[in-house]
Amino acid sequence: MTSTRDGAGTLAGVQPSLRAWLEVSRPMLIGGVPVGDAPPLAVEDPSTGLRIAEVAIAGAEHVDRAVSSARAAFEADDWRWLAASDRGRLIRAAAAVVDRHSDELAQLDAIDAGIPIGLSRELIAAGVGSLEYAAGTAARISGDALAPSGLPGDRFGARVLREPLGVVAMILPWNSPAAMLLDKIGNVLATGNTAVVKPAEQTPLGALRVAELFAGAGLPPGVLNVVPGLGSVAGAALVEHPGVDAISFTGSTVTGKRIAAAAAANLTPVSLELGGKSPALVFPDADLDAAVETVAGNAFLLSGQFCTAPSRVFVHRQVFDEVLAGLCAVAGALVVGPPLDPSTTTGPLISGAQRERVLGLVGSGLLAGARAACGGDAVDGPGHYVAPTVLTGTTREMAVEREEVFGPVLSVTPFDGIDEAVRLANDTPYGLAAGVFTGGLATAERMTRDLQAGNVWINCYNAFDPALPFGGYKQSGRARESGTAAIDRYTQTKTVVTAT
Ligand code: ADP
């Protein structure tokens, strides 16, 4: 236990109960019990670079204990065998407790991941909405009763039952720590599974607090375990663990491939929500003001550290100058600053390393002939800030145009016709999302048909709903975890044929 923190300036802005929570070195949560017998990991506020908390960091032995606890909870009477309505009720109770603590969780994500407080509140509220939706999923799980065509109908009856998978390992990224867990955990639990969560090493706090709140709402011990740790240690131990029945990974494509390879050794099913290099296409018949606001608002959302960020903007040549000027005007009006300041629209990047990477990609593009219409450099200050940046003149040969930047950077490129727009948009190994801005039905339909992306937004962007499946084409992922896809993803079928 430590009584002072280097980041005391940051903590002065958070509510007293959260400040007190952060003063104590946070243990892992395994089987409903706090486990602190492990070395500490310092947690940094990315807006100052200073330490705000520390957590116990899991080794392989803690991961093993967490998987055993999750297994025991899965096999106990009080989770998967609960009446679906009772399981749904527990998830709804958890949603209500989280909702009551939503300000606290929003502050926690803000200081842990650098999310501007207004956005952080919206993300937590969306997470509560996902939980409430998932509470209903518990009662929506149904099987089939069939009269098999090849068996005599009067002598055989067949049923297809749906059963949970077992222990689900959830590996999470740093860009919206508590909010993303809230978004994803409901469907895992509603379908009767138990979970071991490994949050990102940069942002372990939100998952720990969410698990405490769930326990307070009556979730049985061991149903939700949290083991903060390094990807190469706790993460690797978790995905390689033979006691894990399914893996849900959200993060970079590089790590996703590594995890898929590790999972293959045990034939563990994996869902992967990976990176993107999403296009936004602006046609001349669009409501240009709305298109500009939407594209820029979403490209710079969370300082571009959002997997669906519209980072490649293709604009019809007729309206190119107007749209470019509009994007720069929005970028220039953004307020870059500390996350807890309510006027901040754009916070820091997660780490100094991430800032260096982003500036390196931008710099190499500029050296190769791209131009910064605005931004292009770091913002002074102790935190890891990069100015909102709009590039023109980028080419497919430049890494900044090819790779996921995960920073407040977009490129704008003109196109002349719809075929060229389709070709440019699809010319990427990623396929997470795409935005189309047009007033024409035919254009919208053509783009819907031809865009290779798991999510196509027309005259809107980042329009999420817990009822809708979300995920990527190509190297942006595999499988869907949300909405109508959740039951398929988190259950398996058992076919039962009965002779009568
Ligand atoms: P980034 O590169 O942006 O930090 P990653 O995709 O590497 O993001 O990380 C996302 C999550 O994956 C984090 O929780 C991280 O600890 C975890 N992770 C990283 N490497 C591995 C690995 N080899 N096995 C399991 N988890 C990993």
UniProtKB/TrEMBL annotation:
Aldehyde dehydrogenase domain location: 41-496
| Record: active site | E273
**Family matches, as Pfam families:** Aldedh
Keywords, ordered alphabetically: Oxidoreductase
Would I find Cell membrane among this entry's keywords?
A: no
Q: What does the sequence similarity comment in the record state about its family? A: Belongs to the aldehyde dehydrogenase family.
Q: Which PANTHER family match?
A: ALDEHYDE DEHYDROGENASE-RELATED
Name of this protein? Aldehyde dehydrogenase family protein
